[in-house]
Amino acid sequence: MAAKVDYKVIVGLEIHVHLAAKTKMFCGCELAYGGTPNSRTCPVCIGMPGSLPVMNKHAYECAVLTAMALNCSIARFTKWDRKSYYYPDLPKNYQISQYDLPLSENGFIEIPLEDGSIKRVGIIRAHLEEDAGKNNHELGSFSAIDLNRAGAPLLEIVTAPDMNHPSEVRQMAQELQRIVRYLGVSEGDMQKGHMRFEPNVNLHIYKDGQTYKTAICEIKNLNSFRAIERSVAYETQRQLEEFLETGKTMQMGNKRTYGWDDVNQMTVLQREKEEAHDYRYFPEPDLVPVEMDDVWFEQIRSRLGELPLQKQKRFVTDYGLSDYDAAVVTGDKATADYFDAVVKAGAEPKRACNLITQIGQKLANQSNTSVDQLGISPQNLAKLAQMADKGLISATVAASIYTKMPGTDTDPEAIAKAENLIQTSDTGAIEGLVNEVLAENTEAVQDILTNSKKAQKAQGFLTGQVIKKSKGKANPRVVTELLAKRLSELAPKG
Ligand code: ZN
Ligand code: MN
């Protein structure tokens, strides 16, 4: 058996994000998912000779905004280049991309890790390019090509090799999704291919006082968080075993490209590159360079807003939420902003967070919407939270009132009164119920008085019975107090 060796995983990511523009990058064709094949095409995006591209300014601004959120420096002068390659889904035989003067470079992204710490991953560059079409090989003894996607604006982001664990790669992908959704620059829908990830993985293996580096493997076209984490984990193990068996290092092998087989949960070798592809980059003669003045730059920057991680941190420091709660409630911008408004309307943050994430999100899912779209004003939800905090209603009753509020935005107090749900702290009334329950449950009373092992459970049971008798209206604190008092009176005097 091979000796145990120490090693470090090194992962960098290449990411393609579909920008949510109304039209394609260099023509006026509508950008929409699906649709009859080749119905959203024109001479420009099917590459007819003589057609001329025109840059989509909105898509460009979306790209710059994202680059700003990724802390990149933004180029005030950038240009377009042709990247030549031949493939059926690329009718021009070149892709318009950016080569030596990308629109942004040298940034970083901060990722909240599961242990509460923050990891910083460098961004080498982010540039704009157009997507290719789609080949369909599933129709029979021929292949078909759909160019609806050809020319869609794609933001390519290249990270530094700063990730050192499969879960970090997944969390980087998730944080990027949260950012693009907050910015509104992409729907970030993984299933629709709005974000595609390509991890570059290799290992630094420490053995006999030496460091060996394995050859870099690129895993192509991942479009689920699970596939990202699992494929990196698989590739780590595969490279380690290969090194232990063959001793092969980076110098003895070229960069290889792998695919992810989701059925068998393994990476599959696609091709071994002899050298870097010669894409014959040269400046696109049909497009003018983009020059950005200060006014335009500031216009875009003013749309940046508070980013998800900033919001998450603020909810922890200003509102006292746990890291976990803050991460859940900032999962999407609409929920985070709604929560913020509810707290600003006077709700205790933890209470508001629990109501929104435990009840509100369930209601929203049922009606296929988001919590802010349920038709409940932040003021009324804050009022509900306050009623629970003051002990006017129990947490259970608060939850049930919440489910009655959507659509009508009814005052929760009116619901509580109409349905007779206001909790009572009237000791006289509760005392009567306590006496009834004690008389009806002599066995539990005996357990409490004589069997210390069963006492706690029996006491909880009796408390529950009193609250049940009150139809949920008896204040649990008062019930517990009165019950304890009556039980101590019943206890044999020693
Ligand atoms: Zn077109
Ligand atoms: Mn690309």
Structure description:
By secondary structure, this protein is α+β, with helices and mostly antiparallel strands. The protein has three domains: 13-198 and 275-294, no CATH class; 308-418, no CATH class; 427-490, Arc Repressor Mutant, subunit A (Orthogonal Bundle), CATH 1.10.10.410. Helices cover 39% and strands 20% of the residues. It contains 15 helices and 17 strands. Strands 1, 2, 6, 7, 10, 11, 12, 13, 14 and 15 form a ten-stranded mixed beta sheet that branches. Strand 13, helix 3 and strand 14 (256-261) form a beta-alpha-beta unit. Helix 7 crosses helix 9 (378-389). The longest helix has 22 residues, at 225-246. The protein is elongated and about 95 Å long. The termini are far apart. The mean pLDDT is 93. It binds zinc ion and manganese (II) ion.
Keywords, separated by commas or semicolons:
single chain; 494 residues; alpha+beta; Arc Repressor Mutant, subunit A; 3 domains; 10-stranded mixed beta sheet; binds zinc ion; binds manganese (II) ion
Low-confidence stretches: none
Shape: elongated
Q: Tell me the major beta sheet.
A: 10 strands, mixed
> What small molecules does the structure contain?
zinc ion, manganese (II) ion
Structure described in brief:
By secondary structure, the chain is α+β, with helices and mostly antiparallel strands. It is built from 15 helices and 17 strands.
List the helices and strands and how they pair.
Elements: E1 6-18, H1 57-69, E2 73-74, E3 77-78, E4 81-84, E5 94-97, E6 104-112, E7 118-130, E8 134-136, E9 144-146, E10 153-159, H2 166-183, E11 195-207, E12 210-213, E13 217-219, H3 225-246, E14 256-261, E15 266-272, E16 282-283, E17 290-291, H4 294-301, H5 308-317, H6 323-329, H7 333-344, H8 349-366, H9 378-389, H10 395-402, H11 412-418, H12 427-440, H13 442-450, H14 452-469, H15 476-490
Parallel strand pairs: 13-14
Antiparallel strand pairs: 1-10, 1-11, 2-6, 3-17, 4-5, 4-16, 6-7, 7-10, 8-9, 11-12, 11-13, 14-15
Helix pairs in contact: 2-3, 5-6, 6-8, 7-8, 7-9, 9-10, 12-14, 12-15, 13-14, 14-15
The structure holds zinc ion and manganese (II) ion.
Zinc ion (ZN) is lined by residues 24, 27, 29, 41-42, 44-45, 151.
